[in-house]
Amino acid sequence: MPPTNSFVTGLYCSKCDATYDINSIQTLCACGAPLLVDYDYRQASEVMKYEKLITRPPSVWRYREILPVLDDAYIVSLGEGGTPLLRSENIGRDLGLERLYFKDETVNPTGSFKARGLGMAVSRAKELGITRLIIPTAGNAGSAVAAYAARAGLECLVIMPKDVPAPFLVDCMYHGAQVELVDGTIKDCGRRAAERAGDEGWFSVATLKEPYRIEGKKTMGYELFEQFSRDLPEVIIYPTGGGTGLIGMWKAFDEMEKMGWINGRRPKMVAVQPEGCAPIPRAFAQGKDHAEEWENPSTLAAGLRVPSAVGDFLMLKAIRQTGGVALTVTDAEIMRDTKELASREGIFSSPEGGASLSCLKKLIEMNFVRPFDRIVVFITGSGYKYLEILKQGIRD
Ligand SMILES: *Cc1c(COP(=O)(O)O)cnc(C)c1O
Question: What is the model's pTM?
Answer without folding.
Answer: 0.97
